[in-house]
Amino acid sequence: MDSGVFITDGHWRKTLSAVRALGSKGINVTVGESNRLATALFSKYCSRGVVYPSPFFEEAELAAFLLQELTQNSYKMLLPMEDVTLDMVSRHHEAFSKLTWIPLVSPEKLRLAQRKDKVLKLATKKGIPIPATWHIDDLNKIEEIKHTLPYPVVIKPREGSGAEGILFPENPDQLVSQYKKVHNRFPYPMIQELIPRQGSGFGASFLMNERGDVKASFIHQRLREYPVTGGASTLRISARHDEIREMGRTLLEAIGWFGVAMVEFKIDPRDNIPKLMEINPRFWGSLALAVESGVNFPWLLYRLSCGEDFKPVEEYEVGKKCRWLLPGDLLHFIYSRDRMKLMPSFFNFLDQDTAYDILSLKDPGPVLGRILMLLTLLYDRDIKHKFKKRT
Description:
With about 400 residues, this protein is of the alpha/beta class. It folds into three domains: about 1-100, Rossmann fold, CATH 3.40.50.20; about 130-195, 2-Layer Sandwich (Dna Ligase, domain 1), CATH 3.30.1490; about 200-360, D-amino Acid Aminotransferase, Chain A, domain 1. Helix content is about 35%, strand content about 20%. The protein is built from 14 helices and 14 strands. The chain has a seven-stranded mixed β-sheet with strand order 12-11-8-9-10-13-14, with helices on both faces. Strands 3-2-1-4 form a four-stranded parallel β-sheet, sandwiched between helices. A three-stranded antiparallel β-sheet has the order 5-7-6, covered by helices on one side. The radius of gyration is 21 Å and the shape is globular. The protein starts with a strand and ends with a helix.
């Protein structure tokens, strides 16, 4: 019997989006997580939930668990959703790929996409605009350049996601102290000019087949995010931006990409030029918006796993919004200085063009799962580790 798809990391919004996207198409979806109180496991579209060893502290045990699971059940596809599980599957790709289809590039290409500094250098070679960037390989260089930088600047780890390790020094003294602080955890982070906050953030999402052909693409614009200084989007809208799409495609083609990825850009309001931020080489947190707008990336991946060829999906509803309300948009509201002037208003709960990442009348269970997940902060080391990495 075909057991459908195995999806990891059941705590996260993007995993719930993938479960709903596949389950609504009649696909059996098994969801794994290291704790039973995981948001996606409460979805009516989750056919089966399993608890597996910690990807952070028991990688060998998790790899053995997945090998056994894939051997005992016939899965069409394995979808690792978070960086830590993606890396683990990549390292064991040869063994896993004998048992199921894995839409994943080679470890070398994945590593390249995860390295912000290497991605920026590749983009420059391809003529893709980037923020002014200083690559540091000697701490003495900080003293040499500290009086020449256009403050404020941003210190950013060479790899990783979220706001961890990102600081915003406003003068030479802060640069030296903050750089050393980040360096102690993330060796030799980059220094970048800070694109003014008024500039809009865009994401260009892609699905590419094993030949490198684009089989689906989608553009969204960030409207709100948390932390407000730069973090995960809490409200975003589907959009068109051909220039950003072409630059994203060019970059992924230069790597030789396969599977899904999102390329992030920010419009520089000083010259109105989109500038590359980074590549997110896996499913992204705002996946629900793409699905709601008509680009069902998980379903399209499943069709590829079945050997189906289809016309590239390029049309979708523009102007559709999707919101991560709890706690994302609520936190944005709390910490925003202009909270009462937000457009659209935080209190605009009945907009017919706005969907929600977790809230759903058709599938209400995950709301309970998200609430119960907070209880695990009291005792579960995995969930503590995950939340720590996002703050």
